[in-house]
Amino acid sequence: MRKTRKLTLMALLTAIALTIFVVENQIPAPVPIPGVKLGLANIITLITMVLLGKREAGVVLLVRILMGAMFAGSPSTLLFSAAGGLLAYLVMCLLVGRFGSDRLWIVSALAGIAHNAGQLLACVLVVKTPGVFAYAPVLAASGVITGVFTGLAAQSLLKALKKLKF
Amino acid sequence: MKKQNLVWILIFTVLAAGGLLWYFSLGHGVGTVAVVSVNGEQLERIDLSKVRKAYDLDITTEYGHNIVHVEPGAISVSEADCPDQICVFQGKLTGSGIPIICMPHRLVIEIEGGDLDA
Q1: In chain A, what are the domain boundaries?
Q2: What's the total number of domains in chain B?
Q3: What does the pLDDT look like over A126-153, one tens digit per residue?
Q4: Cβ contact (<8 Å) for A123 and B17?
Q5: 3-class secondary-structure state, position A31
Q6: What is the reported pLDDT for B1?
Q7: What percent helix, strand, coil does chain B show, rounded to 5?
């Protein structure tokens, strides 16, 4: 892939991810459990990893997290989303080759668990209250559920893009 | 291949169901002492069984502003200036188990287990 084309594509994917992230932030939380969210921007991280590669996905994710905190979050939530994002990214890197693009939902579910684990760990370190770990099981559950759905969404998107000879 | 997928579906279903069941079975512990802390620092310690009349606590720190509602046997966040309002929607805390958290404000309200009473 030509360099300019790649750069343009990365910029476009970052913009899409950022838009999804900001819009999702405006939607009231579906359940009153801290740390639970749909994580729709994860769809973009996944398809970037499949279409362009791991490094490129890492760049898109990093820029999205930093700019997302600027547009929608606060400095203190940046820490949580960065910890979650980093852990989820590592899990994706390790597993995406093993499972392939037709089983992204598995990768995504495991990345979802990793995301919430990282977020919870950062939260416990910050508030220094181990009682917060009581949220671990429900956050694992929510990571699995949202992860499966964002993974399936990424798969459908990839299929549609292939039809377009993308 | 298909079988492997089934295994994953099974693992994920068990995880999701187990996590949700765990969550909804918690929060009914016997403790009565509520601890309000911000950024790991204990600000208030209230024995909810000794509260006779409801009152509000104003928790304002560099991270943000919350109003904590204390009533006989229960504690909740009634107001917060954070964007997500999750701490407000979490409702009343009546027993130990699951704390109320306002992540953007680093606020945690938990009820200590019965044995830990000071």
Answers
A1: 3-27+35-163
A2: 1
A3: 888 888 999 999 999 999 999 999 999 9
A4: no
A5: coil
A6: 60
A7: 30, 35, 30
Instruction: Write out pLDDT tens, residues A70-101.
Output: 887 777 778 888 999 999 999 999 999 999 88
CB distance B101–A109 less than 8 Å?
A: no
From A74, A131, A141, residue closest to B99, measured CB to CB: A131
Q: Whole domain around residue B63: which residue ranges?
A: 29-116
Cβ-based neighbours of A138, under 8 Å, separated by 6 or more: A33, A36, B19, B20, B22, B23
**A6-33, pLDDT tens digit by residue?**
999 999 999 999 999 999 888 877 788 8
Longest dimension (CA), chain B: 63
Concatenate the DSSP letters of all residues of A1-27 into one string: --HHHHHHHHHHHHHHHHHHHHHHHHS
In B, minimum Cα distance to A69 occurs at B104
Chain A, nearest residue to B35 by Cα? A129
Pairs of residues, one from chain A and one from chain B, whose beta carbons lie less than 8 Å apart: 93
**What is this model's ipTM?**
0.83
Q: Are A88 and A114 within 8 A, CB to CB?
A: yes
Contacts A139 to B, Cβ<8 Å: 19
Res A26: pLDDT: 84
**Residue of chain A with shortest Cα separation from B110:** A131
Intervals of chain B under pLDDT 50: 116-118
Does some domain include residue B95? Answer: yes
CATH of the domain at B68: 2.60.320.10
Do the domain assignments include residue B100?
yes
* Region A3-27+35-163: CATH code: 1.10.1760.20
